Amino acid sequence: MADHTRPRAVPLMSRRDAIAWLGTAGLAILGAGCGSGAPGTAAPSARTSRAAGSPLPQGAAACVLTPELTEGPYYIPGEAVRGDITEGRPGVPLRLEIGVVEAENCTPVPGAMVEVWHADAGGAYSGFGAASSNRTFLRGVQVTSAGGVSRFTTIYPGWYQGRAVHIHLKVRRGEGAVHTGQLFFEERITDAVHGKPPYSGHAGRRTANTEDSIFADGGPESLLRLSPDGNGYLGGITIGLRSA
């Protein structure tokens, strides 16, 4: 497979350089969903707000922590800091908005590093198998904004044997502890997406969330909140960081 170069519309920074720039702050990190509400009002429950709100809370709220999930065999360190990670891979557009907050009070965390990687529409990971000549597509790092949000432009992932559709995730602040997790998708939306090209050309049987042991560990709190976005989807979730 031909190699693809990284988009260079803006200067790229390696993850190592970005970590050094951010400085160090040791953390024990866990995934979380946070309730949201207007300042000065009681926040609704995390489960209610995640069904309809934005990734980040607007006021104090209780965070629901979720367990860390396995890194898996397809991680490649040292990815570039960039928002668009598609590199021309075909698929249904997906915009990710991953909020990062303090687990204790759900206040936004600026300057956290969020790293994602996932399979293409055919179930291939860059850097492995037939795609081994390209180590960068559908991989990237974003630093959270002043409001604690990281944003990625990518495609809806495909599946590979034995796993439900998912996105891998790492969140870190400085050189301290790292939260490693996986984000999953609602079955009805995956069915609709995977019923169309290029996903429909993938022969075999897709593993459902209920058949995936890693999804069983994360549960519904690891599901992305999806909404239509043009000809694709917007996926949002909030990750909580717990101070060591």
Q: How many strands, what sense, and barrel or not for the largest sheet?
A: 5 strands, mixed
Low-confidence stretches: 1-33, 35-53, 57-62
Query: What series of H and E elements makes up the topology?
Result: EHEEHEEEEEEEEHHEE
Shape: globular
Oligomeric state of the chains in view: single chain
The proportion of residues forming helix, as a percent range, comes to 10-25%
* Count of individual helical segments: 4
* End-to-end distance: 44 Å
As a whole number of angstroms, the C-alpha radius of gyration is: 17 Å
Number of DSSP-assigned strands = 13
Structural class: mainly beta
Strand content: 25-35%
Mean pLDDT: 76
Structure description:
The N terminus is likely disordered. By secondary structure, the chain is mainly beta. The protein is 12% helix and 30% strand. It has four helices and 13 strands. Strand 12 and strand 13 form a beta hairpin. Strands 2, 6, 9, 12 and 13 form a five-stranded mixed sheet that branches. It has a four-stranded antiparallel sheet with strand order 8-7-10-11.
Concise synopsis of the structure shown:
The protein is mainly beta. Helices cover 12% and strands 30% of the residues.
SSE layout:
Elements lengths: L12 E2 H8 L4 E3 L1 E4 L11 H7 L10 E4 L13 E2 L11 E10 L10 E5 L21 E5 L5 E7 L10 E7 L5 E7 L2 H8 L18 H6 L6 E5 L2 E12 L1
Parallel strand pairs: 6-13
Antiparallel strand pairs: 1-5, 2-13, 3-4, 6-9, 7-8, 7-10, 10-11, 12-13
